[in-house]
Amino acid sequence: MTDPRIYDMLADAFHAEDTRLLFTLLGDGNMHWATALEGLGCRLIHARHEHCAVSMAMAAANAGEAVGVASVTCGPGLTQIMTALATAVRAHLPLVVFAGEAPLRQAWYNQEIDQAPFVTATGATYIRAIAPARMADQVREAFFIARQERRPVVIGVPFDLQAQPAPDVKPYQPSTTLLPKLGRMQPDPAQLAEVARAVAAASRVIVVAGRGAKAADAAAACVALADRCGGLLAATLPVRGLFHDHPFDLGVAGGFSSDTARAAFAEADLVLAVGASVTHHTADGGKLWPEARVVQIDSRPIGFNQGRRVADLYLQADARAGVEALLAALPEAPATPGFRSAALAERLQTAPADATPFPARPGLLDPRAVIRRLDAILPRDWEMVNASGHCSYFAAQMRGRPAEHFHTIREFGAIGNGLSYAIGVAAAKPGRPVVLFDGDGGFLMHAQELETVRRHGLPILLCLLNDGAYGSEIHKLRADGLPDVGAVFGRGDLGAVARGFGLDGAVVTDLAGLEAQIARFAETRRGMVLDFHIDDDVTSPVMRRAHPPRAH
Questions:
Q1: Confidence check: pLDDT of 2 > 90
Q2: Beta sheet of 383-386, edge-to-edge order
Q3: How far apart are CA 257 and CA 495, in angstroms?
Q4: Which residues, other chains included, contact 439 with Cβ-Cβ below 8 Å and sequence gap of 6+?
Q5: Which cofactors, if any, are listed as required (predicted)?
Q6: What is the 8-class DSSP label of residue 423?
Q7: 373-385: buried (b, 16+ CB within 10 Å) or exposed (e) per residue?
């Protein structure tokens, strides 16, 4: 048996940090370390592109509520992941990336580059590990930052240094032993009294829950608060479905709100944002609740976000503790009718999210009809992954599906990540069927990862809303009266692309046989692409509001 090397020591440290799943693309700078980690029992998912490896780790962290771990080699291996890192920073995802660095002992190396500025420009942390006696401590620091600050960290180690004998260091102490054990932050009594008066005086209350509410297990408290006020419930897009089984759930709060939800928000006189940062999208740029005062209940209220004032009143507290304290401070009188009525409950269950008529075109499907049919067929306990782009509005309108089975990461506005996110969810939740909703443009950016799906035997169903173009761009160009030719590419046959990678695939232009196709996927659990040829004239309400046609 050979003496342990530094890459062995570093693999041991990652393993001690509970790394059981690694997304990677191997190269000189990381292959020995990754192989050593695999030898400790870690499962490796080998991606076909470095960006995709990091995106997979992001989705796994988001779905599994653990630190996502990815690895790339030095130089171009690292520069490929900048978009993923920027997205992870904005999404507050805990992520550690092990990256190689160019060898220290060579006078010239063709992949050498100063890696730290690239990483820090995204907002992530870069740790350069070149002192063997400190490397284990630096691994612990990386995981501590990722866990405590929910921020991605890249640790870079020169690959010739990794091959040196491991130094004699003290037993590794994982970052989890250093994290402070904190209780729930309780609200200030004066703040609480002021917010309670505002709630008691309101007659049309909507409770909007965000990721902080889900993390604090505050859903039941939010429901009790809305019931007390005769109010309505809604969730931000990342936790869409948090109140899926409540009769007065409006669904998504924000630009993706349904027609019925938008009408309710327009009448609200108080919005309670619980564990939600109240982004530009959540408030639809300030247009969603024009007459309402806003109260933010959050452990870290920031006051000003994305160019807008967040709220009128603040209650600094853990989401669940704050709502429970507010409930205790409110009168025990029976709930007033407020917004609630049997007619509204009926509309919430039956009214289409967007009722705008569009003329039918032969051979093409209305994406709204596609999603309604899929919603009726797909089991409620399957994992749903919604990508970005114009098509993402339609899939977000599925109803009656819990937040824990809905996954989306949209913070940087980049398309092309959907398939990687689906792979990350499938790896984090082994054996569970995963359904991806994406467009043709985003899918084709990284279609090579279909080979990853096949090689690892992942049960992923890709539902592609194929308008033969970059959907957002064609609608913006058309609204401005400009030619759309530069954004139109043709629909092709993406089912044949899937078959070329050894998976199942078909073009869908008629929904009559859809149930049988999904039943086949459910039986085989074999990767499948359903290529829905949709009508590119059907424009989402988000796009119609943002880019109305210009008069010429």
A1: no
A2: 406-407, 383-386, 434-439, 460-466, 528-533, 504-508
A3: 32
A4: 387, 389, 390, 391, 392, 415, 464, 465, 466, 467, 471
A5: thiamine diphosphate; Mg(2+)
A6: H
A7: bbbeebeeebbbb
C-alpha span between 416 and 504 (Å, rounded):
21
Residue in 465, 461, 462, 385 with CA at minimum distance from that of residue 425: 385
Q: Dump pLDDT digits (tens) for 438-463.
A: 999 999 999 999 999 999 999 999 99
CA neighbor of 434 nearest in space, from 447, 445, 421: 421
541 neighbors 474 (Cβ within 8 angstroms):
no
Residues 6+ away with beta carbon under 8 Å from 151: 89, 92, 94, 95, 123, 124, 125, 145
Q: Report DSSP state, residue 208.
A: E
Those residues whose C-beta lies under 8 Å from the C-beta of residue 181, and which sit 6 or more positions away, are: none
Q: Which residues of 330-366 are buried (b: 16+ CB within 10 A; e: fewer)?
A: beeeeeeebbbeeebeebbeeeebbeeeeeeeeebbb
Report the C-alpha gap between 214 and 211 in whole angstroms: 5
Q: How far apart are CA 25 and CA 18, in angstroms?
A: 20
- Residue 551, classed as helix, strand or coil, is coil
The amino acid that residue 506 corresponds to is A
pLDDT at 337 over 80: no
Question: Which residues are bridge partners to 252 per DSSP?
Answer: 235
Q: Which pTM was predicted?
A: 0.96
pLDDT digits (tens, 9 = 90+) for 383-435: 999 999 999 999 999 998 999 999 999 899 899 999 999 999 999 999 999 99
HSE-up (13 A, CA, CB side) for residue 22:
28
Tell me how crowded residue 61 is: count the other CB atoms within 10 A of its CB. Answer: 27
| Mean pLDDT computed over every residue of the chain | 95
